[in-house]
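Q: My labmate handed me this sequence with no annotations at all. I'd like to see what the chain might look like in three dimensions before we decide whether it's worth expressing. Could you predict it?
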Amino acid sequence: MPNVACVLDAKSLLGEGPFWDAAEQHVYWVDIKRRVIHRFDPGTGEDRTWSTPEDIGSLAVREKGGLLVALKSGFHFFDLETGEATPLGLPTGQPLNNRFNDGKTDRQGRFWAGSMDDNEKVSSGGLFRLNSKLECEKMVDGIICSNSLCWSPDSRVMYYADSWQRTVWAWDFEPETGAIRNRRVFVEIPQSEGVPDGATVDIEGFVWIALWDGWRVTRYDPQGRAKHSVNLPVERPTCPMFGGPELNIIYVTSASIGLSDQELKEQPLAGGLFAFKADVPGLPEMRFKG
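A: Here is what I predict for the chain of 290 residues:
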């Protein structure tokens, strides 16, 4: 069993969306409800933060500098020098209670982000694709809470979940165009095992899924069969991401939101950033090309 370490006791409310930038050797991640962007340097232990004007669900580093962020109202460019968010590609007609959640750049440099009902009751969310021309298109509808977004090593399969349907689906993915088709069930998570949250893929095509309320991250083979789990000292891990110079360190964000005072006493590292070494490395994450 890997040795799991808390590399940053961040006390985040809703830590999410880790992004390992291979060029910088930093982990970017967000605290959705505290409206904070984090940039953690594993080499020095320094964690720099920026405030955002709205809840922030996910982000990507841009090839042209700065960040692309998915805020409550939509996609924005974020200037790390000034701390300013510039709106772009804002979806129209979104319910007022919706916000963005899990998001990631595909290997062709397009940014995908899922929306959700902030009360996690109504299926008013969906999955959006933003291309390098800043054209935004809704690709999936009828989602309560978007999560588990990732792609197979050959970019021929896309994975995506609705946490509250406890289902992760797979689609055939066309790398050149970003088109998706042939939706099917990849894995259904029993209630006793937790709720599917964020996910990532290793070089063998196995999918690592964080299980909210499940105290662990589980590795599934390409057929959706659970192969092994890594237990964490917190109830609500939210998203894994491969990082490190050899891409063999899995960083995992977590949440403290919704835990009772007694539960927080029992898991004082809730909301921290964790790391453990994996036997199989991951793949480098791409910067957004827009």
